[in-house]
């Protein structure tokens, strides 16, 4: 069957390739490239559908091991502790909050504005019926599979160009190249953080809509030939809209507009930089007739892209409210260097590390900050060789991409470098300071460009060498090793303990790695080991206030109060607005009976964090110790206003009112608390005690039994219920619950004494009956 194929690149600018004799040069060249890869992929190339099926299956196999992993690292803050995922939070708040659930107008906000990503988390939460990580992980794995499948079409455009049949269907002219590149993308281990870490969904969604925007922009050229400018404009506008959606998933998404512009000018328009430079140097009058400068359609598309990008940036800046986020030196030490030269050389070294992670993704780490990569402060540092090598390679590739007389090579290298560099620009520190040194997640989209360049390189090698089987073996080895590395790395992301410990061999000088291991051990109750890692974190970074705070807390619990006070005092001295450290310092000072200093510390904490219910609770405890009962009640009331579910504050109010004889007020507070927290057994217990003293025995009994049902192993619950029965005259029931209480806690002196009184009373009654 004869298929009418139209070469768009030839139609757009046929004056550059007239020497091809009317035959589309792209078609011939791409057939040649696929022929170069015939020894790497079988001659019977899979049809597009089956190629996509293979790529999708391989991508799922690589990361399937992470499906039942926990919420790890940043997942806790972005998901578990993010109230925007819960039904009681209005959907409108998603558009006013950052990625972590904080108000964008707050000075402490991270300014990461990704409402569509948070919306998918919220849907996950609703469908899973809570914070069950399996559903979250499965969505991430499927998203990566979908992006990998879409990459077959994207790579087909990048390698084969935009060739359409008379019916408007795009022809796949480079099936081998697109399949190989898509497989390289699908199995790249640097993607593990995006796929296995739930917060990586921002990058996955951004990539999905980024690629859809690019493919939509490509469709503008197909339709423009058949249906006129209006249809072309529609696809450009749709591409801009998809770019905006990508940006609402992650800020990196806006860069698709720049990529589309480069694609339009250098690829569709076949803008030959070498030719233009030569004409400028020779003052050639034909420069005035360059078709690119007189192309009305191109100017319209560039105007739309520019206006769309400017509009997105303006809206984004307005939403940020108080300006860019404030990062600390430990997040990105190079950006705080006084010398412009030091900043520049370290930024370039970071770029070389990112390039190395794409080339050799064996040393992967969840965090590269806090001393993991020491600053380069002198040209005598041997690491300067890495950035020199990077720029030699980049300059060589850029020269070939812009100046090569081979239009085929220009197109491939231009698009490869475009995908490699343009999506990476927001993470480059060139336009604004970023909050990390190296982050594997930001390489998800740039890896597309890496796969283009690598595939093109394999084709060139295969063409110019006789050892084709060796190249095929190398390619197969890369795919196999990367797949194995993905499986291993996915396993490391399944739990925080494995993830944090895996980083020790990669970044042993990273204080945050030791801090996170210590925190994980402390959460599991292993305080001795946690102290060791916290001390190492502080040794590596003497200004690490969070490590000092956590270490101070553990020492406080172990009654090592003097050292705890020293650490916490140092933490607030380094960071005077560290509210949590001020509160913990107050707790230690209270334990040391330094009440005035403790009150001052609590007040300072509240000054730096006005809505701090836990601090009000601790302040109330201090006032209760000082017998300042009214102040204590006011402090606890403030805690419950700020956090209505603050059970400890409610309980302390009930107990204090009970102990001071204000039974009616204690009962009212107890009933108010249970309305807000109806299933809290400690509140049931406290209110039951008050009701028993008020001789409301029946209601008190019901609350005691409900509390015991919720927590049957609480000795005090059985003991106080026994006291109620004792007063009420139900002596057999009192005896039963005294005995249960003593079985649970044989050392309870009060219960022993009451049980003894009951037994004597029962013996007297028996004697009287006799």
From TrEMBL:
Top-level EC class: transferase
Keyword check for Transcription regulation: no
Compartment(s): Endoplasmic reticulum; Membrane
Superkingdom of origin organism: Eukaryota
GO biological process: endoplasmic reticulum unfolded protein response; outer hair cell apoptotic process; positive regulation of endoplasmic reticulum calcium ion concentration; sensory perception of sound
Pathway: Protein modification; protein glycosylation
EC numbers for this chain: 2.4.1.109
Keyword Hydrolase: no
Protein keywords: Endoplasmic reticulum, Glycoprotein, Membrane, Repeat, TPR repeat, Transferase, Transmembrane, Transmembrane helix
Bilayer topology: Multi-pass membrane protein
Entry's transmembrane regions: 141-161, 202-220, 232-248, 254-277, 298-317, 384-403, 415-436, 442-461
GO molecular function, a single term: dolichyl-phosphate-mannose-protein mannosyltransferase activity
Pfam family, one: TPR_8
Domain DUF1736: 323-395
Coiled coil: none
Gene Ontology cellular component list: endoplasmic reticulum; membrane
Intervals holding TPR repeats: 511-544, 545-578, 579-612, 613-646, 715-748
Function: Transfers mannosyl residues to the hydroxyl group of serine or threonine residues. The 4 members of the TMTC family are O-mannosyl-transferases dedicated primarily to the cadherin superfamily, each member seems to have a distinct role in decorating the cadherin domains with O-linked mannose glycans at specific regions. Also acts as O-mannosyl-transferase on other proteins such as PDIA3.
Family to which this protein belongs: Belongs to the TMTC family.
Designated name of the protein: Protein O-mannosyl-transferase TMTC4
Provenance organism: Microcebus murinus (Gray mouse lemur)
Gene name per UniProt: TMTC4
